[in-house]
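Support case: user asked for a sample of complex input and structure output to validate their parser. Sending the pair below.
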Amino acid sequence: MKIFRIHALICAGAQCLAAGGNGFEDALKDELKKHNLEEEISIVETGCMGACQLGPLLVVYPEGVMYTKVQPKDAKEIVEEHFLKGRPVRRLMWKGEKAEVPTLAEVPFFAKQTKIVLRNCGNINPEDINEYIALDGYEGISKAVFEMTPQEVVQVMKDSGLRGRGGAGFPTGMKWEFSQKQQTDQKYIICNADEGDPGAYMDRSVLEGDPHSVLEGMLIAGYAVGASKGYIYVRAEYPLAVKRLEVAIKQAKEAGLLGKNILGSSFSFDIELRMGAGAFVCGEETALINSIEGNRGEPKKKPPFPAIKGLFGKPTVINNVETLANVPVIIDKGAKFFRQLGTEKSPGTKVFALAGKVNITGLVEVPLGTPLRSIVFDIGGGIPEGHEFKAALTGGPSGGLIPMEYIDVPMDYENLPALGTIMGSGGLIIMDESSCMVDVAKFFLNFTVDESCGKCTPCREGTKQMLQILERITSGNGREGDIELLEKMGNIIKQTSLCGLGQTAPNPVLSTIRYFRNEYEAHIKEKICPTNVCDIKGGKNERKIAHRPSS
Amino acid sequence: MKERSLIDHLHEVQSGKKDNYISKEEALKISKSSGVSLAEIFGVTTFYTMFSVKPRGRHIIRVCKSLSCHMEDSDSIINKISEILGVDVGETTQDKEFTLEESSCLGMCSVAPAMMIDDIPFGNVKIEEIPDILEDIRRGKR
């Protein structure tokens, strides 16, 4: 093995690339060449490190010095000062820390997280299977195949209490058990990588940063339920994730970890990629199955559930990316280890995609039950100066709000529904005083109207009617009784829609009414938008002058 | 069991074409080889936003309109592109270079406002950068 003096880890997650990471890497390579350092310093392209807003990110080991927002022009200084003379470049370091040279271990954004799902993201080169293996990768499947019966694997999963991270929170072990009990010639495992919730991107980061953890999770699921074939349904909007998955599948096949007789055992399993084509509803499992089969991605009535009758009519386990990434750790380290984290009914961790009006946006993994306040303030660094927290939105278009009065709510599968919202896939959008809650509700209704597949009437027609009411409210034409009408329609749509999309579509409206009814009333009765977001004729400019003195 | 789904097939056909769409002739070819009726192929093609049955530009611009981007004024990004290219959302420029589209969420919420041009992601997009980005894409420099 070759020993390097310095390992420079460059984040090659989509968001850092979007912020210009490519250019920096090229410049850094040029500088290393210029100084003849290529044999001493290794550049590693990793997946997402999490602090996406401060990207492109660079971490320099052995110390773990963290550089943020690196630009091509910074490469020269980093090489000449830090790499050659051992003087880290202060102006590019993480800001606002007490430590002289803030390292990864000292910055609260990283130090206060607990990483299970994101254990390898940002630490390894996702395109090299050996790096995954070096960090206990494929230990889980090896243990399952050689030391455990499929029943024992399912039992460990049940004992762990892992709940599906895609949104509904259904116990994963139970899902596996349903499928395991089916007697049939063919069963399937599907990885749902059709992450579409506006505001959520943890699945993308896992696929881009640690694809083997997902493959291993699928292998273990396949062994447990007796399936020999798996599909990963990934959205076409994620070309980088598709590419890294292709590389990972190829390497796993070459290493004997996919295909016939895995690790020399009698267990065989293959994985194929299937691409989506831009339809949010395909994240719903029956719609997803339709899409893999090559049809319009419309949902079907349940039951029968996919675990009994799924893809091509065969028993099918569908798990989300984050769920599957947990599986190898649970099998390798045991249910007890997993249960040390999180709460009794919601064990383990959850990855949140922190976005919106917060100082540090990015991916945050914490034990379930962590209070919202500590995610936003301790890890996310609070709200930008001069502004205040108004509400957090969880669950995207299926979720709702957590207003200031509930900011200490433990984030888990029990407490969020009690507030009228859901965990969803972990999108967490923070809003400050400048956001209009009626506008937010309208925004999501617009989204659902766009994405409704049109199969069932309540969702197709009902959401459209609700949107029309919201549009007239936000344009100053709201009528007495509109709020009550929205509530009534919302509840009917929830009860009568065919799939999860429609059943949850009214949530953002109902939740904003629940906590910010006064804003609706201001639009309807006084014809003003208290935050000046909505375009109410005559009101907008006047309010701006009256309420926003020059800062 | 089918090894490739109709959707994979459509992706393949569409990405192989300069004008980024699935023509009736291509759909007929798929129909003949797979035995799926033309009506069904049309149904599937029009269900998914990333397929088109009308010719599009050489490059597809997808501006994200998710809530985090909306809060960072993604509307002004769309307006600017629209102004430079002289097209509305869903339209293609006369020289067939660009088609302007919106996406419900590109999953780049931390670097909002975000967009993609073909497979290239752009984050923290600033209005003043847009002319250069478009020019670079046009010249194949990105």
